[in-house]
Structure formats: C-alpha cells, structure tokens
Description:
The chain is mostly beta strands and 300 residues long. It contains one helix and 20 strands. The radius of gyration is 18 Å and the shape is globular.
Amino acid sequence: MKKNLVGLGIALTMGxxxxxxxxxxxxxxxxxxENYASGTIDGTxxxxxxxxxxxxxxxxxxxxxxxxxxxxxxxxxxxxxxxxDEPKTFDQHGNxxxxxxxxxxxxxxxxxxFLVGIQGNTTEPKTEFYIIDYWIIKDTADxxxxxxxxxxxxxxxxxxDIWQNTANSHMGVQGDSSFKQYFSIRRxxxxxxxxxxxxxxxxxxELGLKVGKITDVMALVEGYKGQSSINxxxxxxxxxxxxxxxxxxxxDNPEETTAISRRASLTLLKGDARVFDMQGRYLGTxxxxxxxxxxxxxxx
Length: 300
C-alpha cells in the first residue's frame, strides 16, 4: 500500500547545550524581538513553524534530521508535519496515524508546563485539535486550560480524557475570533508509541464535537517557562502517516515520500501576525520581516 510518510527528529534544549551537541546545535537564534518563523522541508509536503517568547528558540535541520533547541525560553512552540492546500473532512482523507520515540538526557525538567503530541486546525467550523501523549503540568490548576471534560475512550493501549475549550482573541487559521479547541489527553504519559489520529476524530464526532475540514496535522512540542538543568530533549523520530482506509480513500499525495533526511528552506514572513500558545498567552506580533529561527546546515 502506498503511503505518505513524513518525519523529523528534533532536540529541545532547556539550559545550555552539552558538549556532545555543541557542533550539532551551535548558538544561533533570532534577534531580540523577533519571535516567529515558518518554512518547508525541501522536496516534500512537510512544513514547520517555530514560535518563541523570550530568550532563544530555533530549529536546525540537518541532512539526517532536525533539532529544535531553546535555552531559558519563557514560551516556545514547534510544529512540523503536512499541510493541505485544499482542506477536506477526515472521512475524505485516508487514515492518519503517527509513530514516535523520544528521550531526555541530563537533569530533570524544570518547566511547569510541557506538551508533546499531535496538533492541527480545521475550517468549517474553525477549530484547533490536540492529541497529547506526553505532558508535564506541575500546577494542577492549569488543567482548566483544557476547558470542560466531555468523556473518555481507550485506544492505543490507554485511556484518553476528552475536553473541549473555547478560545478567544487567538491567532487561528481564519484570523482573530473565538473558536473551539478539542483535546485528547493520554492518562499515562509515554515517550514512544503509535497514535491512531483518525480514531480520535471519530470519537470527537461521536461526542458531538464537529471535526471540520482539516488544514494540517502536525507534531507538536510546546514548553512554558523552560528554565531547568535538563541538557536536551531529543525526538529520534516522529512520523505522521496517511494511508488508504478500508473504503479505499487514498491520501492527497499517493506517492510514497520520506522527509526524514531533508534540509529545511526558510520562508520569511511579514505582516501583523499575533501569536498565542495553547494556554492563550500572547507571544508577540510579527510587524516586520523576521530573521531566521530555522537554519539549514550540512550533513553531520
């Protein structure tokens, strides 16, 4: 069966990079006051986005993978995965799934808030959706971020709690307005595994959460107040896959494509783009041409 496979390895540094990673992740980050960059992986349908608020955050893409590195960041978000020029409902797509593995090195996490999972957007209606497999939420009051709990279901070896929230004054796919956020939060966090993304879409609809036309399905790494002794956080692989479903619905691009060993080409953005994190914290406004937060480097 043909499939569309995209993947990227990343490392997340909170504090100083270790010696072993110094050459792989040399110090390079946006100038002060610049907080957003977006681009594509050459030769694929694979996109990335980097946000940061305070201090340093950047993504380096090597021939054999890519790394996000940030040091003492107040807030940082990275997304990477496929975007769709012509949004369609999930039942008009094939089946979406993800496979991933990551590991940590160094000291313990000092961040009070950290998420790893799947995130995407839809239109008609406008929504954001999240499937979170790994999380650190030290302040239990922060669970209110997820809104109202609607139910639960079991998939991929564990139970996910399902939440719905209403976000306001947030930069979304259709500009500033209120919209719904859907969350599936895995009860037992893990650092590797398989995620049946389409199963979550189906369960959300069963609970009355309308899943509109999908504009993107991307891996998510998000941290808040990342000041700790951890040396680095490395994702060995995070592959998002769309395959033909049982009815024979095929992906938009049926050609088999791998993007793990691709360099990144940076797209610089202009305009008045207001950026918020998942908790609604304002990260900044891009009012001018933004210098690279993502760098292309040669094979190691």
